[in-house]
Write a structure and sequence with these properties.
single chain; 305 residues; alpha/beta; Spore Coat Polysaccharide Biosynthesis Protein SpsA, Chain A; 2 domains; 7-stranded mixed beta sheet; two-stranded parallel sheet; 11 helices
Length: 305
Amino acid sequence: MNEIFSIFKLLDLPSFVYQNLSSEDSYSHRKVTDIIKKNLKLNNKLNYFTPSKHLDVGSSITYAISYVAKKYKYVLIVEDDININSLNLVILKECISLLNSSEKFATISLYSPYKKINSKNKSLFFIQSNYAHSWGWILKSSCWEGFCHTKRIKPKFEFNRNNDLHYSFLKYAVSALANIASKGIIKTWDYQWNFFCNNKKFCHFKIFPSLTYHLGDFDEFANNIKNSSPVNNLNLKADLNKKKKPKDFQVLDYDYLLDKELLMVHHDLNFGKIIAISLLNFLPTNIATFVFKFLRLINIYLSKV
């Protein structure tokens, strides 16, 4: 966390640190509070805020984003377990320049799950995607307006223009996950956000190669234990030649195959999970909650065997 605060001070931009209220008097919460208080004294552009009560994960994150998005046109969002040491003002300006070039460009993730390519080309690329990622990202605040992570969602099955039935099932599974999460069965917000953006025809970008990574078990306060497995790039190496250059960075044309592999590998949506998610979507909320917890316990057990 101290490293993140150091980067914020170097960027010399108005910054907000958000802390959810703890549901219990825990050691980790007290320690985080002490770190925040220390850094508030070192950076006069750093502001601190909390909700009026303890919030679940999805509500907490959307509350924090909404609070700051009302104040600024663009918001850099970083959770406390993300390494952003490679970030600088030049990169931020490039991101804002790209987001500002179209009303349909919603976010840019500083993280991308694609494997590094052995290449002499050291440029950074913007890869267009229909799916956002949240391990250090820049949001155009106008795109956030109207988003509510608890609004009920009607999953839809639609054929994509490439007539790829497998990809259509993957997209349906994501929309079903968004509906399940909107009911509070999964305590999250990002599936709903992706569904919201899809309906609005917003698109997203990921920077390649990644500028950030998840600290996982290197950070005692991390929620996750490892970075997600990277996708295999498919023909990404060839795509690096199909580029547009608005300023200093290069923008790749959209390739739906990259999104397809993102859902299969990064989100780990195999055939069995697609069926399970689809069934949960049609169950009453209380039954779906019980079944989800049961399936999750089975999955945890199988992963340890």
